[in-house]
Amino acid sequence: MKMAITGSTLNNTTSTASTTGENIINDNAVQVAFFMIYTAIFVLGIFGNVLVCYVVFRNKAMQTVTNLFITNLALSDILLCILAVPFTPLYTFLGEWVFGRIICHLVSYAQGISVYISTLTLTSIAIDRYFVIIYPFHPRMKLSTCICIIVVIWIFSMLVTLPYGVYMKHTNIGNSHSTVKKYFCDENWPSEDWRRTFGGITTAMQFLIPFLIMAFCYICVSLKLNDRARSKPGSKNSSQDIPARVLVRTALFLFVIRSDYTMEVLLFLSYRYLLSVFAPYSQRVEKKHYVTVKLDIVGRTVINFESTEQGHAFD
């Protein structure tokens, strides 16, 4: 027996799901929990990453190539904490955008810049480690070269992420004659094809390509270090093994942290696909974006601080 799904049934299902989602978001306990989580992320993210920058800039001996890259990671996290973390939960819980047109464009833009800077910097660290371990007798990267790479990373990130800042719309929803104005901040691409194309390119450049490069570099480094360990029996507990242990631990931490970004992308793509299939007419669902907690800020803060403390093991 075939079951027909009418437009009314689909509409009722979508309405019920939307209402349930809104009830959860509007629950006081949920709001308090997310407020506490985001506050902790903001405080730890700012304090931890500022501390990383202070340690590196204050101590000249800490100003190595690796630590400059780590400081760049800290700066990208500070950018994310200041221009993204405070606004995300408030927009979700208030149900409207109250921060103005400029912040509407800046938040999405800052998020894109931060992710690009993080992945490109992590890739640069992996490439630097690759040449240091695989070709130990080749000249090391100079600090001036490292600074130039960091500047290029920032310029490139700001340019390629520009569409995220441009294609945002600060919209007033409601009757133009009403005295009460309610604003929303949402993506406003010229067409759906543009959005999908740019999203695909961004996913490849932000995650796929950097991940493949980092995987190749760290696999080669790991194999090289294992060969060195086997060629020097009895030296497993020596100080020469410190870089290997730090490298493996850092690589594992970075993999776990970047995997949360991968899940975030997959959740977002799944959300948009289901929304386009089952609720193309539901503006209310479109306005209620899913809430993502940026735990990667805290994780990267821990790694950044730990890496600066042990960065001499690499250099």
UniProtKB/TrEMBL annotation:
Localization (cell): Membrane
Pfam families: 7tm_1
Keyword field: G-protein coupled receptor, Membrane, Receptor, Transducer, Transmembrane, Transmembrane helix
An annotated GO cellular component: neuron projection
Bilayer topology annotation: Multi-pass membrane protein
Keyword Membrane in record: yes
Positions of transmembrane segments: 32-57, 69-93, 113-131, 143-166, 198-221
Main location: membrane
Family matches, as InterPro entries: GPCR_Rhodpsn (IPR000276), GPCR_Rhodpsn_7TM (IPR017452), NPY_rcpt (IPR000611)
Family: Belongs to the G-protein coupled receptor 1 family.
Name listed for the protein in its UniProt record: G-protein coupled receptors family 1 profile domain-containing protein
Organism, as annotated: Acanthoscelides obtectus
